[in-house]
Amino acid sequence: MKDKEDDALLAQVAALLDSPEHVGHPLHDALQRLYLHHCDQQVQVQRLIDISDRYQSLAMEARQVTEQRYQRALRRQRKLSRISDGYQALMHERNQALHQASTHDPLTGLPNRRLIIERLEEFVRQRRRFTLTLLDIDHFKRINDCHGHDVGDRLLVAITQTLSATLRDYDLCARWGGEEFLLLLADTDRNEARSIVERLRSCLAAVTLRAGDQTISVTVSAGLSQHRPGDPHQTTLMRADQALLKAKRAGRDRSLSDSI
Ligand SMILES: Nc1nc2c(ncn2[C@@H]2O[C@H](COP(=O)(O)OP(=O)(O)OP(=O)(O)O)[C@@H](O)[C@H]2O)c(=O)[nH]1
Questions:
Q1: CB of 249 closer than 6 A to ligand 1?
Q2: What separation in Å is there between the alpha carbon of 125 and the centre of ligand 1?
Q3: How far, CA to CA in Å, does 67 sit from each of 28, 87, 196, 212?
Q4: Could you tell me which residue ranges the GGDEF domain spans (predicted)?
Q5: Are residues 89 and 167 in the same domain?
Q6: Residues with catalytic annotation?
Q7: What residue owns the CA closest to ligand 1's atom 11?
Q8: Residues 121 and 244 both lie in one domain
Q9: Ligand 1: distance of its center to the CA of 209 in Å?
Q10: What is the pLDDT of residue 1?
């Protein structure tokens, strides 16, 4: 509205200046200069407005481009984070699987030699009281020979389940060798250990396995040794092994303690 009024006023002034009857009027020159000056100012103002408009649209474009780049970078970052999280979870899983494989026996799932030796070293370092028991299935070779290796494996698993179910939570049972298990009976002296092992032996003697039309059961022999403070764990192990040998030689199906 204002622009229209301005345009109308300017047109009116231009018409007055062009009109022959006003030529020579004392205000004609001053009004003409004022008119031209105004027109010139108007052109400059319009130029400034154009520049400002261009600048604003450039700034807006730049802002949009920056925003788009930021959103793209954000999406890329989130994707990388998801990949990294997945990768870390996978690494964690693999590490756990590796750790499990390096410390446990694959057939029975029991701790292996490496793990129980670590625990033994810890017990010795902490000067804890413990008794070691080496437990060996009697005539296990015959099971394999008569019924096959698979039946032998199943029997090992069944024995393991009974061992794990019968032992106390704070004891440790490891698969020491083929048909040999090492028990770390924590905070236990030889007498307590002996009664635990006898209870264990009768539970193990009750384990049965069907193989074809036959029912298989086994007996176990055990050698015990109470750890003596100051001894390395190897010495206690050696004594338990000797006691086991004696139990085997004495006819199997029994437990013997080392001679003090
Ligand atoms: N099925 C099976 N058999 C195994 C495994 N590891 C070792 N053995 C077998 O265990 C048997 C051990 O035999 P021996 O050392 O002669 O002992 P044994 O027959 O138990 O005799 P004693 O210990 O003297 O009573 C061998 O036949 C080995 O092949 C296993 O993981 N699975």
A1: no
A2: 33
A3: 58, 30, 73, 75
A4: 128-260
A5: no
A6: 179
A7: 141
A8: yes
A9: 17
A10: 61
ipTM computed for the complex: 0.97
What CATH number has the domain bearing residue 141? 3.30.70.270
Nearest Cα residue to 221 out of 179, 171, 160: 179
Across 105-208, the runs of DSSP E, i.e. the strands, are 130-137, 172-175, 180-186
My answer on whether 94 and 135 are in the same domain is: no
Per-residue pLDDT reduced to its tens digit, 38-75: 999 999 999 999 999 999 999 999 999 999 999 999 99
Q: Does the reported pTM lie above 0.90?
A: no
| Whether residues 36 and 76 fall in one domain | yes
Q: What is the CA radius of gyration of the chain?
A: 48
Q: Which amino acid is it at 29?
A: D
Q: What does the pLDDT average to over 137-156?
A: 97
On whether residue 108 sits in a domain, the answer given is no
The domain in which residue 31 lies consists of 1-103
Residue 143 belongs to some domain of the structure: yes
Which pLDDT score is estimated for 259? Answer: 78
Give, for 260, the enclosing helix (H) or strand (E): none
